[in-house]
Amino acid sequence: MPLVRIDMLEGRSAQEKAQIADCTHRAMVETLGVPERDRFQIVTEHAPGSFHFDRAYLDIERSDAFVLVGLTLAAGRSADVKQSFYARLCELLVQTVGLREQDLAVCLVENERADWSFGNGEASYLTIPKDRWR
Amino acid sequence: MPLVRIDMLEGRSAQEKAQIADCTHRAMVETLGVPERDRFQIVTEHAPGSFHFDRAYLDIERSDAFVLVGLTLAAGRSADVKQSFYARLCELLVQTVGLREQDLAVCLVENERADWSFGNGEASYLTIPKDRWR
Amino acid sequence: MPLVRIDMLEGRSAQEKAQIADCTHRAMVETLGVPERDRFQIVTEHAPGSFHFDRAYLDIERSDAFVLVGLTLAAGRSADVKQSFYARLCELLVQTVGLREQDLAVCLVENERADWSFGNGEASYLTIPKDRWR
Hints:
The structure is a homotrimer of 134-residue chains.
Chain A: E1 3-9, H1 14-32, E2 40-46, E3 51-53, E4 67-74, H2 79-97, E5 104-111, E6 116-117, H3 124-127
Parallel strand pairs in A: 1-2, 4-5
Antiparallel strand pairs in A: 1-4
Helix pairs in contact in A: 1-2
């Protein structure tokens, strides 16, 4: 399970928010080897005074459409695999909701297999065989 | 200090939300060795379109009552201790608010002692002797 | 990039919330070596029933003005540097918004350089030379 938090300024349509969440999950399935049903996402909109982001850090010009995607996921992906995720997510958001590629930031935090329970009071990845992670 | 974030769909009573937070803290005290007064929790309710969770991942059937508990805590607990926490939290929520045991997920993220300040501008766990962590 | 989440009870003015965010960024620039334009912050206010914090943990007396600052940042700062950040942030908040020094808690979580993308679908810290991190 990655746990996904998506933050943005308020003002998008429900449809566009759903599409951003869909794209994030699709990019994870395609590049991070995340199972199709392993989807847990929280989308939060913020008032302008509550979401501060620099408009030019690293000489990348951000707009009000800026989207910040945060993932907590089990360790084990290489830098190349992470890079593939950033590129694919960016591509999907450009294609699907017309996001400018400057308007996406991603932040990953890694934990361990023992750090997850998906139900039944169990450390699921320790008790459920890997071929049933779906 | 663990820092606790509890996320769920909107619609619960204030009492039930308080009970869920209470159970989470009690399970942490009982199984993770967290001091009784070491309680810092944020409870957030979400509209359906803002909280996406798969209803069947790992063949566990989740309902609208699904609760996601996230903990940031200092490293050092074994997988067995973590497992005890998941089991006890699940048990308490079933007993106290009638949660289905399929409707609880937990995600842990670990950090270090130096990563916490509890006040006075100090790295508390480096400056306060361990016998006063209460 | 550190990603910053600032949580507090509801009721502050917009100005005071902006000042708290400003102080947090200034302390990071001064003590953590964060570039001036590397600013990404989410400020969230909570109803009393949704934000639980112990009023006396570690014998530090907290009030309703309590502010919790969470940072996700790339690993590599020493405990001394972190300590400097806690002290400077506390000092700035006392000076600027009159916060009691007991009313600030901080929680850090570390990740790696490969865990960040700031735009253009790239793992920015792997693709952009360090002298352009500004």
